[in-house]
TrEMBL record:
Protein name, as recorded: Uncharacterized protein
Upper lineage: Eukaryota, Viridiplantae, Streptophyta, Embryophyta, Tracheophyta
Superkingdom field: Eukaryota
């Protein structure tokens, strides 16, 4: 990875607290991205791998 095109993203996931799944914590996590090699769909895919959606939840992309 090239240090000039590498970024650390601090991502905050949030949702409706009334509809929140039990045992699931919304919050912050960091993701290191190389802007030369990634695109938006890959970024969304990495986030969904870390925090998979539950039943009737949709990952918007």
């Amino acid at each position: 990875m090239d240090p000039n095109s590498t970024f650390t993203l601090k991502i905050r996931l949030f949702g409706n607290k009334k509809k929140m799944r039990e045992g699931y914590k919304y919050g912050f996590f960091e993701l290191v991205i190389d802007s030369d090699l990634s695109n938006y769909k890959d970024l969304v895919g990495e986030i969904v791998e870390k925090r998979p959606p539950g039943y009737l939840e949709v990952a918007h992309c």
